[in-house]
Design a protein that fits this description.
Elements (H helix, E strand, L loop, with lengths): L6 E6 L4 E6 L4 E7 L4 E9 L4 E8 L1 E7 L5 E6 L8 E3 L4 E5 L4 E6 H5 L6 E4 L2
Antiparallel strand pairs: 1-2, 2-3, 4-5, 5-6, 6-7, 8-9, 9-10, 10-11
């Protein structure tokens, strides 16, 4: 949900899209296509950069959508079976759990430029 509570984003993995719901009217106002990406589950909103990040399992990818138009503007490979995506605005990084104790990290600026270098950090 956006910070002002006006829009809710809902994964619809079987239909390969993200539904956008207007919270006031409780109606779907948009459907953002995921193209060939399938099995979208985790979502994170980066309102500072006007992006919605979605984790896909097939192929294992992080999709970056424009928060206003819904256009898929970047796709980057990530680990298989991502269950969550987090944004840490202090470091402008994107984090997602892999298999404990591992967390994958990508610099947000890099993802937005579609030239991401994924770094896997072992927590041990």
């Amino acid at each position: 949900m956006t910070a002002d509570g006006s829009r809710i984003f809902v994964n619809v993995p079987d239909s390969r899209h993200i539904a956008v719901i207007d919270r006031t009217s409780t109606k779907q106002i948009a459907s953002w296509s995921a193209g060939s990406l399938r099995a979208n589950y985790p979502l994170a909103i980066d309102e500072a950069h006007q992006r919605l990040l979605a984790g896909f399992r097939s192929p294992a990818s992080l999709g970056v959508f424009d928060l206003q138009s819904g256009a898929l503007i970047a796709v980057d490979p990530i680990c298989a079976d991502a269950d969550d995506v987090f944004i840490r605005l202090v470091t402008l990084g994107v984090f997602w759990p892999v298999a404990p104790p591992t967390v994958a990290v990508a610099a947000l600026e890099t993802v937005l430029l579609v030239a991401a270098v994924i770094i896997y950090i072992n927590a041990n």
